[in-house]
Amino acid sequence: MDNPIPSEETILRDLQETGILSTDAVFMPLTGGVSCEVWRVRPEHLTPEVVRDNPHGLVVKAPLATLRTPALWQADVSRGFAESAALTWYGTVTPDAVPKVVWRHAWAPVFVVEAAPEAWEEWRHQMLNASADSPDVAGERLARIGAHLGTTVAAWHMGSSDTNVLPKVLLMGDRLRTLRTDPFHRATATEVPEIAVELRALAHELESARTCLVHGDFSPKNVLVSAPGSPFGGWMLDAEVAHVGDPVLDVAYLSTHFVCKGVARPALAASFDSARRAFEDAYRTNSDLVDADRWSRHAGAILAARVRGVSRVNYLTPEQQEFVLARAIRLVRGESSLDEVWEQILLAS
User: Fold this and answer.
1) What is the model's pLDDT at position 67?
2) SS (H, E, C) the chain
3) What is the pLDDT of residues 212-257, one digit of tens each?
4) Which of 24, 72, 121, 162 is most buried, most CB within 10 Å of its CB?
5) 313: pLDDT strictly greater than 50
6) From CA 121, how far away is CA 226, in angstroms rounded?
């Protein structure tokens, strides 16, 4: 699908002409993402009627055709239409768990969402950078975030098990293949031939399912959380991989991030384990769509991809990468479980 992305100047002018932004508004680039241009607009640059409903400002998002990764990775920018539709639908199910969509471009896959309060922070940053005695990574707080995420994604999965409730754009496209199974499973199969057959089979399993709406990027980098000591709040962002598929992808995806961060930060491994158990318990309490064996196998596939696929984590040492890969291989083969992997992580910490 040919969906050219307007220039930054054109998007800014469009938002001014629609009465969302003031004539002196400017875009502030937000960094860290690989798949989109993202800009923040401060509240003082919103028109009075808009700032009343969006006191913390707005965020503008436009997808990239070529992602910012070391290896070539291209994807159809029409995924921006699906992302805005998914966030809108998620907002009808869990209004406090996602930002609201404020505006969608008339013909381009560009959209605007409300901004979070300035004090909210990316959960990944806290998990990787907070000191071990920081309230950001206290075990009780991490478990609360994990439970919030488990309850949220279970509500999404169960609420969309009748896929007829979903916008049509979410039933179409090849976002799963171009953004997940090709760069993750199939690329990793080339790099790790000893589990190539299993990885390709798991990719096919994901691509064959039409169970419910799947977020597809259920990761701490896409979670914003409120500051410790303030009223709890947490948003899930970045739904550009959203598709109708297999719910195992979401739960396995977050599980792999708990593993990688537990390996990277052994002093916090016990707290991360509490968070992952709270996530799993909350999900299983509210959804029966994923059994433990499939959860572990698919987590293994994504773990292998995070150290050998196109999109690799950048915070593990070579020795830690080998530790993760060895566990991933056993998970994919069905020779181990996530609980057993965590026993080994905690033993090594």
Assistant:
1) 66
2) CCCCCCCHHHHHHHHHHCCCECCCCCCEECCCCCCEEEEEECHHHECHHHHCCCCCCEEEEEECCECCCCCCCECCCCHHHHHHHHHHHHHHHCCCCCCCEEEECCCCCCEEEECCCCCCEEHHHHHHHCCCCCHHHCHHHHHHHHHHHHHHHHHHHHHCCCHHHCCHHHHCCCHHHHHHHHHHHHHHHHHCHHHHHHHHHHHHHHHHCCCEEECCCCCHHHEEECCCCCCCCEEECCCCCCEEECCHHHHHHHHHHHHHHHHHCHHHHHHHHHHHHHHHHHHHHHCCCCCHHHHHHHHHHHHHHHHHCCCCCCCCCHHHHHHHHHHHHHHHCCCCCHHHHHHHHHHHC
3) 999 999 999 999 999 998 999 999 999 999 999 999 999 999 999 9
4) 121
5) yes
6) 7
| Dist. CA 209–CA 189, nearest whole Å | 21
Which two three-digit tokens encode residue 163?
């896929």
- Say how far apart CA 158 and CA 162 lie, in whole Å: 8
Span 15-37, pLDDT tens digits: 999 999 999 999 999 875 677 88
Structure token pair of residue 190: 């080339």
Q: What is the mean pLDDT of residues 64-92?
A: 84
Q: Which residue has the tokens 């596939």?
A: 301
Question: How confident is the model at residue 32, as a pLDDT?
Answer: 59
Residue 4: predicted pLDDT: 75
CA distance 59 to 207: 31
